[in-house]
Amino acid sequence: MYGSDKVSDDSERTAFRRAEKKYKLYYDPASKKKKQPKKVDLSEVLDFKSILESYNENSELPNGFNVLRCDSGRPVFSMENRPGFYFIPGALNIQEQCEWIKESLTSFPQPPNRTNHNAFYGPINDLFLAATEKKILVEEGNSPASLNSGCNVSPGDGDVQRWKFFKEDVVSSRGNTRKSISASVLLRKLRWSTLGLQFDWSKRNYNVSLPHNKIPTALGELAKRMAAPAMPLGEGFKPEAAIVNYFGLGDSLGGHLDDMEADWSKPIVSISLGCKAIFLLGGKSKEDPPLAMFLRSGDVVLMAGEARECFHGVPRIFTAKENAEIAALELQLSHEDDHYFLEYIQTSRININIRQVY
């Protein structure tokens, strides 16, 4: 999901892959001491924040753009050449953004929700808390009974409890003879978690037999409100599953389709949190040149109907202070007692996308 196919010649690339390459993070080989990102031409990137500001000032829209208002009163933008695609800039206020960042790091990776770590470590409990307490995850099969005091159990698949969290000083005092990894590293390597009905990445479908909880009520209500402009007349959105993506420096999400849900007339509700990103919205073939647009913290994108058949991806996030555009978010989180949320989001992006499966 986060990787990319290596193609040596641009002529062999699709239009979508060429756009991914154009906006991807590359470093300037001429920079000696500190790696400096290569400059990239952003002049063709759509900026819905600017479109919103212009619309609020003089009610003008670019050619081919339309606007409607949802119950929240916020303008919802659509494009004539991308039916079924809707963009709601600044849909979430700062307090809401902070709330969902915290939930994404503390609650959403909790079992029975699955994460990319399940395949190797099994379900991991309280990963964010363990990271703030600088704990180490140790394979229990190699850890002696003398380590068992003051540990948190992380049960593996089935009945066998393979891994446990221990305090750093306990692990170091016993010597580094066991397979282990720090919770902070695991947190930074967290790439996805699944809520509600669990998505089976190996089979690319939903596995209703896997243990799962319902979508959190507050997230479900938010998704229903946001989905309204894209819903068929007289129908309500039923949030049944969500995938949470976690992006760090240099991460990207390759061009793909979200095509495993039964009814494509129902939208995917996509919420952006944290550092600014570039989103590519292509066509029904990767040969179709994609539109590039900025996604900022608090923005919401809806993809329904024909838009569900369009390839899309995230080739770039901006973590440098001057480009991330999270000053208001940083200020709000700086007032929190727990500074770890601030430290995390300063170099990260979180995307919550909620779906109606059936």
Automatic annotation (TrEMBL):
- Looking at the record, the residues that make up the Fe2OG dioxygenase domain are 238-358
Q: Which InterPro entries match?
A: Alkb (IPR004574), AlkB-like (IPR027450), AlkB-like_sf (IPR037151), Oxoglu/Fe-dep_dioxygenase_dom (IPR005123)
Listed under GO biological process in this entry are:
oxidative RNA demethylation
Q: Where does Fe cation bind?
A: H256, D258, H312
Q: Name one GO cellular component term.
A: cytoplasm
Q: Which SUPFAM superfamilies match?
A: Clavaminate synthase-like (SSF51197)
Name the PROSITE patterns for this protein. FE2OG_OXY
* Xref: Gene3D superfamilies: Alpha-ketoglutarate-dependent dioxygenase AlkB-like
What name appears for this protein in its UniProt entry?
Alpha-ketoglutarate-dependent dioxygenase alkB isoform X2
Species: Ziziphus jujuba
